[in-house]
Give the backbone structure.
Amino acid sequence: MCIKIALLLTLLLQSGLILIDKIAAVVNGEIITVSDIEKAIGFYPVLRKRSEADDVFYYRVLDELINYKVIYQEYRNEFALTDDDYEQVQSPILLKAGSMEKLRSLLKSYDMEWNDFREYIREKVLYEKVIREKFPMKINIQFKEIEDFYEKDYVPSQQQLNLAPRTLIEMAPIIEKYLRKTKMEERLSGWLADIRSAYKIENKMRSEK
């Protein structure tokens, strides 16, 4: 059964069929839900790897959300967020959606207003600001890397999801940002692990499996 369905509970109440969200992880008492994962997949330039199983993909996205929440809890009193910081995260989201109209339609599908959206991305905004300011390293991505990822990972994953792939020209900026972020986090893995070790993290998805 698809993990997207398996990890949601439904209860039939007097008012009708109610979809109940489920806890995916808890970080120092703060909850990450399955719908948070769904929104991350919908909003962020999260790209599925070739032949990546549903559960592995969800675990990977959840792990990123855990990183965002840990770094937010660690540094929220140290860094003030500006409109430019939000723009750094909103631009790739808008690019992925295709237009502001489509982004607002996506928000509507999640029953979210613009303020809800800004609140949802806040942890990622702070995470990216901390990374930029603490590790101002330049990572170069060759176009051949972008092209290879597009052909070997992006297109097959879209076909697996029965979705029409967007063109390489459209996807190149998103893939470049994704590859840069992946390489950055590979370099920062020890730093992230040290910070995470000081937090109580309960991954409900893995424990239930």
